[in-house]
Amino acid sequence: MENTKCTCGHNNPVGTLLCENCGRPLDKDAEGIKQGELNMRYEGAARRSQTYKKTLIDRIWNFFSSVKVAVILILITLVASIVGTIFPQERYVPAANKEAWYEQQYGVWGEVYYKLGLGDMYASWWYVTLLALIGISLVICSLDRVVPLYKALKNQRVKKDVAFIDKQRVAASRHISDGEEETVLRRLTEKLSEKRYNVRRDGNALLAEKGRISRWGPYINHIGLIIFLLGTLMRLIPGWYLDEYVWLREGETADLPGTDYALKNEQAIIKFYDPEEAPESQNLEGQIVEQYETHVVLYKKDEQDGGLEEIKSDVILVNHPLKHEDLLVYQSGFQQSQPVSLKLTLNDNASGKTIGTFDVNLDDPQPTYTFDNGIKVEILEYYPDFALEDNKPTTRSNNPNRPAFVFNVVTPEKPEGEKSWVISGLNLDELSENNRYDIALADIEMVNVSGLMVRMDKSLPIIFTGAGIFMVGVVIGFYWQHRRVWVGIQDRTLHFGAHTNKNWFGLKKELRDVADVVGLDIPDKPST
Known about the structure:
Blueprint: E1 4-5, E2 11-12, H1 56-64, H2 67-83, H3 98-115, H4 125-154, H5 162-166, E3 170-175, H6 181-194, E4 198-202, E5 205-210, H7 217-234, E6 241-249, E7 253-255, E8 261-272, E9 289-301, E10 308-317, E11 322-324, E12 327-348, E13 353-361, E14 368-370, E15 376-383, E16 386-389, E17 392-395, E18 404-410, E19 418-423, E20 437-457, H8 460-479, E21 483-490, E22 493-500, H9 504-515
């Protein structure tokens, strides 16, 4: 590629809009550019996306350097994020059969929602890809603009072509007499210094500047967003992020999913306000809950022998989680008096005698229970949370909220057995009135169950760092303005021009006070 040469003799890279040396417009129709229409974006420097367009890398760079592409990617991600909130995500679905739950709760739309993968959208490959593409776009957009801008601002020359000065949006000029140059430049230097401008002089030219940091605000925003996105994507690394929900019964020890820890629920307690001490604002009938608490023991699992090493004991309260390193366990739910086991009796209707009793663990029932006289009770079917769908038995979840069994009583006289139904809360004597053997509920063991939210997020420091950097960029971009003033004297004419990246009204107001000291009049609108 050949360089674009300015009339001042400086060779500029292809794609440069304003001469790097004197600022003169390099457009063929430069004379037709009106005051205020000078392209000062990125100081007229050549951007890579506008210069190189031949190779595949160039095309990829040019694609992601487009602000329109970045906006479209963000809008697509925003719409997808909204769609993901229409129905609950799978992790919050209280059922083993997720697809059936969506269909049962939301009909055909729930079925479509699940089959499209929207139930686990935020961890899906395409959603993660969208976030990655936004990050790539932010990086390339920033580099494509900040590099030429930094070079242009770092290498600013004091002397500028009068065409550059006169075509600024804020500009004025007047004739000066012989010997007045030094006085005019001295007065302008003093007044601009009072306004906290950094003033540089080169012969009969001045460059006054302040607030350059404002130009870096948007790019600091981009850095913060990129770090924020990296932190979000790091949640996909195994062991970095965990958000699980477990139900733990009193006396039960269970592994915490996604960790090498186990937790034992020693006691789950629900406390109620004394009727005389209840808050007046709680104008409710019945008992008012004061606090939920769970007494737990945290264990570390041994990878070799699977043993458990006690780490700590603690009491988990609402808003006071168990904390250990990066692990947090919150009190999030409570179920009072939930069944954990049933004591059943086997009765012989012919003799009217009780053959014996057996205990059924509702979490892990035995397949067969054998009595001393050789009679066996087999569990053919078990529905922890019994329900009927299309007149067929099913279970809503794996939690024993309404346990139901189909038993088969096998005796030496009747080896094929006879079936009996036992459903919590229902009297089914009519179904088994012709059976010789009857299975009846003798007792039920109830325990409290704690719903615990298990969380781990090692990416939070990275996410907060990104958010903090982003806010710094917002403050810099909003509360500072990059203001520059160029002054040049040529052919006994004083040329005065100024530019800012925002708040033109404030710039004009400030510079009218400066221009008055040398008899310049700054118009309200650019001349045409």
